Amino acid sequence: MADLIGEIQALDQKAAAAVGSAANAEALQQVTQDFVGKKGALTQVMKQLGSLSAEERGAVGKAANEFKLRFEALITEKEQQLTEARYATLAETEFVDMSVVPAEFAAVKSGAAFSGHIHPISRTQKQLEDIFTSMGFSIVDGPQVEDDYHNFGALNFTDDHPARDMQDTFYTTTGHLLRTHTSTVQIRALERMKPPLRIIAPGRVFRYEEVDASHEHTFYQMEGMIVDRKVSVGNLLHLMQTLLTEVFGREVDVRLRPGYFPFVEPGFELDMKCLVCDGKGCPVCKHSGWVEVLPCGLVHPNVLKSAGLDPNEWQGAAFGLGLNRLVMMQHGIEDIRHFMAGKLDFLKQF
Ligand code: FA5
Question: I want to staple 309 with a disulfide (CB 3.0 to 4.6 A). Which of 159, 190, 245, 304 is the partner?
């Protein structure tokens, strides 16, 4: 019996050496197998218990359990050391250099290296943000998953208003919807900001739409709104003209028509002469020579009232720019579906 207890105690030293030299988690697992696994050293010792009396077996069993406890403590301590060492070197071993151009992308375009770049819609969005912030506008944001109140109700679309049909959308099972326009942010801005205010709100919008060369189900708009004590149609049109002249770097041909939106009065459609076909007619302008890009108007008194503002004191002007279509005019893009197709051949042109 004394021999067996001695053998168990001798395992301590061997175990300490083996655990100490384990360089990683796999090696440590192997050491565990070697000492306390089914075929491990401790099991080999315990196989000899048969020849002992019950009392002796108890004493050897106790020694074996004590060894196991000491062994587990050794393993836990080593695991901790290995984890700490791994974290200490992680920054070097798992460093990823995001600026490295993979070999398969190098040498595109007559040998010049090709790497990712900003999407044409984002680029025009930034350009517009610069123009508007230089005129004192703040950039604000709102959720893409909205409620009926912010998308329709507060914008003067009554429950059964036919104008709702022009902006059908996707609904969630909780009664929320994917916003159909960025006009939702007019309401959110009025809820948290005090007039006078000037805001723009660029963002993604969604519609249950028959997709064609100028209609997408997911596209981008940029809302703009001014609320002040005196705002006129003249101010609004001047703003629209400044916007387009700055974006195109020259005056562009536009036409103004009356337009109906429940949240403005009066409302306008501001169309641009189609720059894809130079007004001759193509699928983008539906062969009319004109493209709807910039509906706008004076904020309806009901919208101001529902935001707790007195329409006799405050007036507003707002617009809802169709960003995809503006970018199409900028670059002569003949189909709106290119933007989200993920085609490198298209994107590389910008
Ligand atoms: C609106 O969405 C209004 N919220 C705009 C507005 C804001 C009016 C403030 C007055 C005051 P409309 O549904 O016309 O309006 O869309 C605005 C612009 O988004 C259009 O002129 C067009 O350029 C673009 N647009 C509309 N539907 C699509 C579509 N399916 N795909 C791509 N662009 C679209």
Answer: 304
